[in-house]
Recover the amino acids of this structure.
């Protein structure tokens, strides 16, 4: 079959991901129609390219947000409704509740991450590697089952050089672990929790009194080595300072807390996974859409000057294929 899509692999400056465009002309409407007609191609390319797709020119989605939801449905059976999952309503799109609004402008008013310290690497580059760069995570890993895929649209990006999104390839990072580290992480589980639970590394280090968590807010175990349900490939599945449980974790069965053996292993794994050869830096242009697979990639947002710039991004999340490990589980984040 001739495809409606032109596929260029990998993404510039890295060795994973793909850029997708229409072979013919047309904007977001034509693109989504073509993707719906040929519903297997893009999920297939996403899996083949180890979890990251870039589409330019989707500006029309900003005027017709349902288009983003339609496009999201191609990637899985369930596009999450953010009104049903305890997300503060100021972060949910007013008329399309499948869209999470990520913005520093009201009513969301979410501040960007802090500048790394120092702001640049010794050779003047954007820091990407942990722990110089912080904030690496995979979306909603504090839930079981976690979501599969996120889509992120630049409605109003900030100028280049700020407000990038970084991605690290967990599949290549796993493959290149030493045999010794592979053996150490096999069967290991991480304890993931929302930063709202105040068990982040900073919270624990500053001695904050832990809050009592309801059953649906508690930390969730996730495998450190995740087997991708589509490709069968193994990938590192981890977060760092803000989305692991630093009180009882970060790993089940290892010494807990910021000074324990678990912390030392987490630093080693994260620093490994975020080496430059595994990282893609996305500089956003209005109308860019990224599709990423949370099962095999971690990502991080970077600083921008929120005093001067307004940034408006829309995210959807798609779930329904977390793999046999999660078969039959009820949603951990919904109160029983
Ligand atoms: O703002 C960004 O660049 C990324 C935000 C993010 O991690 C997310 O919405 O999942
Ligand atoms: Fe994220």
């Amino acid at each position: 079959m001739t495809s409606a899509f032109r596929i260029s692999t990998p993404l510039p400056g890295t060795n994973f991901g793909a850029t997708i465009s229409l072979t013919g002309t047309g904007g977001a409407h034509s693109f989504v129609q073509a993707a719906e007609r040929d519903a297997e191609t893009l999920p297939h390319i996403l899996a083949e390219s180890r979890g990251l797709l870039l589409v330019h020119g989707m500006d029309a989605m900003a005027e017709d947000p349902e288009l983003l939801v339609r496009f999201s449905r191609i990637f899985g059976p369930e596009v999450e409704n953010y009104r049903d999952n305890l997300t503060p309503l100021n972060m949910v799109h007013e008329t399309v509740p499948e869209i999470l609004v990520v913005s520093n402008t009201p009513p969301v008013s979410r501040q960007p991450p802090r500048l790394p310290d120092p702001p640049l690497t010794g050779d003047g580059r954007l820091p990407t590697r942990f722990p110089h760069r912080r904030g690496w995570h995979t979306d909603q890993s504090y839930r079981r089952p976690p979501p599969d895929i996120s889509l992120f649209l630049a409605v109003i990006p900030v100028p280049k050089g700020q407000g990038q999104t970084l991605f690290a390839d967990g599949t290549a990072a796993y493959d290149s672990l030493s045999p010794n580290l592979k053996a150490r992480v096999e069967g290991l589980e991480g304890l993931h929790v929302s930063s709202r639970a105040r068990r982040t590394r900073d919270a624990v280090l500053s001695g904050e009194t832990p809050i009592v968590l309801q059953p649906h807010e508690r930390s969730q175990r996730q495998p450190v080595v995740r087997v991708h349900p589509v490709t069968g490939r193994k990938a590192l599945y981890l977060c760092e300072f803000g989305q692991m449980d630093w009180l009882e974790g970060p790993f089940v069965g290892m010494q807990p807390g910021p000074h324990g053996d678990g912390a030392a292993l987490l630093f080693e794994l994260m620093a490994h996974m975020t080496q430059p050869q595994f990282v893609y830096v996305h500089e956003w242009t209005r109308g860019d859409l990224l599709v990423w697979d949370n099962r095999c990639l971690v990502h991080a947002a970077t600083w921008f000057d929120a005093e001067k710039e307004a940034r408006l991004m829309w995210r959807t999340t798609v779930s329904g294929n977390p793999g046999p490990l999660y078969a039959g589980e009820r949603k951990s984040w919904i109160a029983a």
User: Anything to note?
Assistant: The mean pLDDT is 96.
